[in-house]
Amino acid sequence: MTTSALRPAVPLLVLIIAGCIIAAVGNGIRSSFGLFTLPMTGDLGLTREGWGMAMAIQNLAWGIAQPFAGAWADRVGTGRTIAVGLAVYAIGVLAMAFSPDTGWLTLTAGVIAGVGIAVSSFSVVMVAFGRAVPMEKRSLIFGVATAASSFGQFAFAPISQGFINAFGWQSALVYLGVALLLVIPLSYALRGRTENPVGHADLPFMEALSRAWGHGSYRLLVIGFFVCGFHLAFINVHMPAYLVQCGLSPEVGSWTIAVIGLFNIAGSLLAGYLGGRLPKQMMLATIYFLRAVAIGLFLLFPVTEVTAYTFAAAMGLLWLSTVPLTAGLVTLFFGARYMGMLYGVAFLSHQIGSFVGVWLGGYVYDQTGSYSLVWYLGIVLGLASAAVHIPINERSASSFALKTA
């Protein structure tokens, strides 16, 4: 059955372009934070665990704020939500440039930037996309939004490294903060909110969450998304430093992150396209299994530029390809009305995984001088997540959207 969509406040193409630019800039800047690991820890005298904790808090703050950001976007509109989020995100990045120690870095780069990322993230952008297109096209459009985020990662990795090399890490962060402020006007194109379908209850936050959590497939989806966050955050934050430890240059680290973003453009678009034609849960199981295989093969061979870029390309194809499929399942289960909140809850699980991946990477390195244990854990978690997704039923939760009396 074809599901109708609400007419957007601006032409659909304008809405999609504006949303994609916001997603690209926001995710591109966030993805470049790993490039600041070595210069900031060196200049400020931070331990790797201290730096990792600040980045872990950022991911956790992002995850905790995401359901509330999604609920707010559902209620008051995506345009206002994203504008506020970009402003808070910019404040966090600008303040990060002048943070003298771990405590301040945890507050600025961790809490403030993390909340700003949540409120302006591509998850909120996808809420605007979700209400503007019919159900059968949502998976593809979610793939487009995810691909735009990946392009931001590809573009901002070498840009940020260039800023660091030319102006120093402090000025580089100032420039990135200004870039966030410059895209705020684009949020106007995403204004509007998702209306409740006729004959369905307008459920309060906790009641909607309670009904959704009673759906077994949704619980499995939320649990499995933890692993996605673990993989992405660990690799994104610690991969550049890991490659330097293996004897490669910082530029190789930045280009590795860029290659991940480049190949994820293809991976996200392909996942979005196939998500409307193949069982989404089986595609997710396959993605997590292939991630485990890619990590295992990476550890088997000596680390060189060739193996680093090959691994980055493989992981890029699998990187955020989980997002359009996961978001597609959430909207299939519960419809577009509560997508912002309920995808946000799933994303909280993702960000708890991110917190563990980033913090554990720094802790294990400080204790052992190596990241090996975390790499091996990534393989085990990938296999476990593949198994968790197989039992998911790809059908709507008929008991969720109850009609009003």
TrEMBL record:
Keywords associated with the record: Membrane, Transmembrane, Transmembrane helix
GO molecular function: transmembrane transporter activity
TM segment ranges: 12-30, 50-69, 81-98, 104-128, 140-160, 172-190, 220-243, 255-275, 282-303, 309-334, 341-361, 373-392
Chain ranges of the Major facilitator superfamily (MFS) profile domain: 12-396
Pfam families, A to Z: MFS_1
Top-level taxon of origin: Bacteria
Gene3D superfamilies: MFS general substrate transporter like domains (1.20.1250.20)
Name used for this protein in its record: MFS transporter
